Amino acid sequence: MQAFLQTSLVGGKDGTRFDDVFTFVIPMVDGIQITYQLANGGTTTLNHGGQSSSAQIIKLSDDESLVGVFGRAGPQTYYKRDMINNIGFVFFNDKTDTVRTVGPFGNSNNSNEGTSFYSSNVFAFGGFAVSENALGLSGLFFYRS
């Protein structure tokens, strides 16, 4: 059995917990949607938090892997609660030996709320989310190898 580590929660605990990269951008990160490719060739998609028509889609090539997640999380003054204020992702292409960074997404009001976070070797996400668009992604933790 492979050992893994769950990181500390960043952000808050409002909403429903999920354990399972697609972000919705307003003053904070409103939601995350992850599509997994299954062993049988199919896919499954999981949504957490709100959804928006202005979402940013991040596609990975078959040669890329997620090597880091970064952002800011904590008190959000407009909504008066802890939230994921912004998030970004770092990918490594093992065919070309290149790194690609996307984001950060969120923080459209250019504030500096919350504290910085970074996690490497992420293979799964967990956290808390509220399904209402205006309340979104409360907090995240990461499963690491």
TrEMBL record:
Domain Jacalin-type lectin: 10-129
Top-rank taxon: Eukaryota
Gene3D superfamilies: Jacalin-like lectin domain
InterPro entries per the UniProt record, alphabetical: Jacalin-like_lectin_dom, Jacalin-like_lectin_dom_sf
Stretch forming the signal peptide: none
Pfam family, any one: Jacalin
Protein name: Jacalin-type lectin domain-containing protein
Organism listed in the record: Hermanssonia centrifuga
Phylogenetic classification of the source organism: Eukaryota, Fungi, Dikarya, Basidiomycota, Agaricomycotina
